[in-house]
Amino acid sequence: MWIVRILVVVAVVGVRLLFRQDWVGSALLTVGWLIGMALAEADHLFYVAVCNPQELTCQRVRSEIEKKEWRNAWGILKSTVAERTRLPIHNVLTAVVVAVLGVWVVSSAGSVLASGVVVGLGVRLFTEFLAGDKKNWFWIFAREFDIREIRVVGLVWALLLVISLVGLVR
Fold first, then answer.
1. pTM for this prediction
2. How far apart are the first and last CA of the chain?
3. Residues near 56 by Cβ (< 8 Å), separated by ≥ 6?
4. Which ranges of the chain have pLDDT less than 70?
């Protein structure tokens, strides 16, 4: 999935440079994109620190962080990523809000850096949605979603993301 994310940012920045010749804006967009991608990783740290600190994995990660063993903590987080299914940012409600926010930020006369952050986070969440178990993304709701509803939500999310990406290169 990292290849897809990198290809998307390279394509957007490449088209932007080709048509606009805006080197500073493209650099800011890339930095924002990287920040947005990192926000999805911060979700795992937030879960460990706040959401479910009594879990054994969370205790192990916090112990490594207290010992300033960052690499070990990161390794534990990466190897146990499948255990965390109820992340605060990794849910469909947050994802759709980020997608709508992305359209709004990109279409306004706002910051290219902010546009990069929002769209980078949106692309990251969408690719994780496509690659993982889609039902895990609906944990925030009290009912089960059937496959048709999941597809509709995914389609709306994809359309909003495409609108944001087009807005970045126009």
1. 0.86
2. 26
3. none
4. 109
